[in-house]
Design a protein that fits this description.
seven-stranded mixed beta sheet; globular; Oxidized Rhodanese, domain 1; 160 residues
């Protein structure tokens, strides 16, 4: 009986190891392909077009830490109201006024990106060029995106 249990356990471990190996080879390559296709997407900001991986953009992911860890735009900083104090300092360390700050969340009815953009604008002042991605992370498989300046966004809400 002990020999049977040892053999069964060894087979189980070998199956698990093979599964993990296959996931590592195929699962990660699918993720890399998906991430590569995201990099080639275009975002329209005012009258200019930028690739998602443009070095002139500092991406801010306003979603929860859990969603951020499941996937995000390369180089994005996770910043939301629940982790503001601990994360905002890391953003300040890498932001320079020449960079656009582009905030995104899940899209649709998600307004987290707007909340974070307003708060960043208050803290960084008028020299900060802060935009909100009008679509969300879940919609990144589309080809082009549009972003709106946070000041224009606020004005559009005040008019309506």
């Amino acid at each position: 009986m002990k020999v049977f249990l040892k053999q069964s356990f060894a087979i189980l471990l070998a199956s698990l190891a093979l599964s993990l190996l296959l996931y590592g080879v195929y699962g990660l390559s699918e993720f890399r392909e998906e991430n590569d296709s995201i990099r080639n997407k275009i975002v329209q900001i005012s009258n200019e077009q930028y690739n998602l991986n443009d070095s002139r953009i500092l991406w801010v992911d306003a979603r929860s830490k859990r969603l951020f860890e499941l996937g995000h735009i390369d180089g994005a900083v996770n910043l939301n109201m629940s982790n503001w104090e601990e994360q905002v300092l890391s953003l300040y360390e890498i932001w320079i006024p020449e960079k656009l700050i582009l905030v995104y969340c899940n899209g649709g009815s998600c307004k987290l990106s707007e909340d974070i953009a307003y708060k960043l604008k208050e803290e960084l002042g008028s020299e900060a060029r802060i935009y909100v991605l009008l679509e969300g992370y879940e919609e990144l498989d589309r080809g082009e995106f549009e972003a709106m300046n946070v000041d224009e966004l606020r004005e559009s809400y005040e008019r309506s």
